[in-house]
Write a structure and sequence with these properties.
- The protein is mostly helical and 201 residues long.
- The protein has one domain.
- It contains eight helices and no strands.
- The radius of gyration is 16 Å and the shape is globular.
- The protein starts with a helix and ends with a helix.
- Pfam families: DUF6198.
- This is YitT family protein.
- It comes from Metabacillus litoralis.
- Keywords: Membrane, Transmembrane, Transmembrane helix.
Length: 201
């Protein structure tokens, strides 16, 4: 159980760090992150607060889609991701800005890798999924869409909202949208093996 909790917490913490790096790169954040930044800029509250608010909204939306009850345990995942994003964005990297393009590119790539590692780690634990990931699963279950189509629908909806809220959309957004899935799948293999090895000790 200790290994499971450790993977869960470290995974979400690394995921938050990755999200922060993609935002700080200023080349375009992921669709949902761009939405959260846009809401923070237009309305107020921290980016992490909007991660939590949007997560709660999606939690009830997912329940409506599958005609079931909200997965309230997902609140823990939502709160931890929101806290992690604010910790890295407002405490650790608040005054850190990348001026040169090469550093921005490294920040974007590093952010994608850290998000992928974080997601791969926390998914091993089988704890409640991030409502964004659950949205893909809900659309798949209700409408029998494949995961790629379900994921794309969620990303496009977030992207449209982020566009109207003038969130940080750019080339990085496109790169994240198309690369994050394959990278998570690639990283998931060694992470899964390591997790299984630690559980057997």
């Amino acid at each position: 159980m200790k290994i499971r909790i450790l993977f869960y917490l470290i995974g979400l913490f690394l995921m938050g760090f990755g999200v922060t790096l993609t935002i700080k790169a200023d080349l375009g954040a992921g669709a949902w992150d761009a939405l959260n930044v846009g809401l923070s800029t237009k309305i107020g509250l921290t980016v992490g607060s909007w991660v939590i608010i949007i997560g709660i909204v999606l939690m009830f939306l997912n329940a409506f889609i599958v005609r079931g009850k909200p997965k309230l345990l997902a609140l823990a995942t939502i709160l931890l991701i929101g806290f992690s994003v604010d910790f890295w964005l407002l405490v650790v990297l608040e005054n850190f800005q990348f001026e040169l393009l090469i550093y921005k590119v490294f920040s974007l790539i590093g952010g994608i890798v850290f998000i992928a590692i974080g997601v791969a780690m926390y998914l091993q634990t089988k704890f409640p999924a991030n409502p964004i990931d659950q949205l893909m699963i809900s659309l798949h279950e209700r409408f029998h869409l494949n995961f790629m189509v379900s994921k794309t629908i969620g990303e496009v909806c977030a992207l449209i909202l982020a566009f109207f809220l003038q969130g940080p959309i750019g080339i990085g957004t496109i790169i994240i949208t198309f690369l994050i899935g394959p990278i998570i799948q690639y990283i998931n293999i060694p992470v899964s093996k390591r997790y299984e090895m630690l559980l057997k000790r």
